[in-house]
């Protein structure tokens, strides 16, 4: 065997794969990995079908179908007031994951420092490390997981190249507030710091609150690569379709990587989504749709011995379980899957140090019946 020096020696298989496999093995209700258990809109499937039958089965343009980029520009301007040029400032990607990897590879050089907040979605740190960058992370504290901006300030050095933000936040369900935005604007002023803003849950904000996209604030927009996901927005995570918007000088570098990583992404699905986006109700209806699920699931969980954490956005509900056991969250999540028949994500895996605050994350993008069955089982804990 030819020896290979691992580029990510500490990395194993992701928790999403691990927990979904364990759930399948034990026939557990899978509230771990974040994906719906119901179908996306039949109209959308018809549109993909039509695009295929119409012969749109060859390579799309490298940056994405122009019709889709135009719709993304219209949506972004309508929602956040920012004007992006579809020609030079928008690229369609194979999900947000590819957009995040591409953005990090495009701008992070060896020894550049990247500030991020933990718990953090799992694909940020490996991408930074692969580019030779240095992860500077701050651990946030439940129940509110607020960003301590004074401490962020202290992390900044002349090597800080990027801050990664994720609002609405996976796994905690928190959202950035106007106060956070003001702090961020003050923090980056006169600094050469870019922002990678993971906004895949941009349409999943509840209780009438607004999503503070980086695109809303010119001081932030001008330094931001903003990433979103049609998988999340249109209940079709398996389609792996997303996009990045950024000012032209950043997008130019982004595309240099994108063109060699994937060149272009799924053509018929781009045709379909371009058409589907024309009806804004297809995304503006999402907060109500998911808020109902959140409220229903929370009412159920309130009857159990789990303690609910706040959930202002995303389709994840986190809970603490101090009153139940002092087991490690990973052990408890495995036991819940095997013995109770409900799979969750242990939140310690979103901390590089494995910090265990005894928090589990449940995905509520599920049929009401699924959520009810899960609660019924959790009542036995
Ligand atoms: N960022 C966050 C915060 C996520 O939860 C996910 C999972 N959808 C992604 C990025 C990746 O999105 P995609 O499935 O479109 O690659
Ligand atoms: N974003 C999804 C989650 O947080 C999982 C995506 C994946 O499986 N990589 O559950």
UniProtKB/TrEMBL annotation:
**In which family does this protein belong, per the annotation?**
Belongs to the class-I pyridoxal-phosphate-dependent aminotransferase family.
Q: Does the keyword Protein biosynthesis apply?
A: no
Protein name stated in the entry:
Aminotransferase class I/II-fold pyridoxal phosphate-dependent enzyme
Keyword GTP-binding attached: no
Record-level Gene Ontology MF annotations: kynurenine-oxoglutarate transaminase activity; pyridoxal phosphate binding
What the entry lists under InterPro entries is as follows: Aminotransferase_I/II_large, Kynurenine-oxoglutarate_AT, PyrdxlP-dep_Trfase, PyrdxlP-dep_Trfase_major, PyrdxlP-dep_Trfase_small
Q: Which residues form the Aminotransferase class I/classII large domain?
A: 29-378
Q: Which NCBIfam families does its entry note?
A: PRK09082.1, PRK12414.1
Q: Which cofactor does it need?
A: pyridoxal 5'-phosphate
Q: Which Pfam families match?
A: Aminotran_1_2
Q: Which UniProt keywords apply?
A: Aminotransferase, Pyridoxal phosphate, Transferase
Q: List the SUPFAM superfamilies hit by this protein, alphabetically.
A: PLP-dependent transferases
